[in-house]
Amino acid sequence: MHKVVHIRPLDDVLGHEESADCLCGPAGEGVYAQTAAEAVGMIYRHHALRPCHDWEASAEG
Q1: Which residue, among 61, 40, 57, 54, has the nearest Cα to 6 in the 3D structure?
Q2: Separation CA 27–CA 38 (nearest Å)
Q3: What per-residue string of b and e applies to 15-48 under the rule 16 or more CB within 10 Å gives b?
Q4: pLDDT digits over 3-61, tens only?
Q5: How many Cα atoms are found within 13 Å in the side-chain-facing hemisphere of 15?
Q6: Pairing mode, if any, of strands 41-45 and 27-31?
Q7: What DSSP character marks residue 21?
């Protein structure tokens, strides 16, 4: 099962949508199991436009 998690800043100057196409251009990173050659999930870390103190991780779906 392919899982997707977004890590978004909550107190940024703009709202971040839960999408790989968010305006901030989140960086995607594959998550691999030790025995799998393919990624079993993706983590998207959103880029804050200003230094933020509050972040939230949430799974899609």
Answers
A1: 57
A2: 18
A3: ebeeeeebebebeeeeeeeeeeeeeeebbbbbeb
A4: 999 999 999 999 999 999 999 999 999 999 888 788 899 999 999 999 999 999 999 86
A5: 2
A6: antiparallel
A7: T
Domain ranges of the chain: 3-59
AA letter at 57: A
Which amino acid appears at position 47 of this protein? H
> How high is the pLDDT of residue 1?
54
Q: What's the order of all strands across the beta sheet hosting 55-59?
A: 27-31, 41-45, 3-9, 55-59
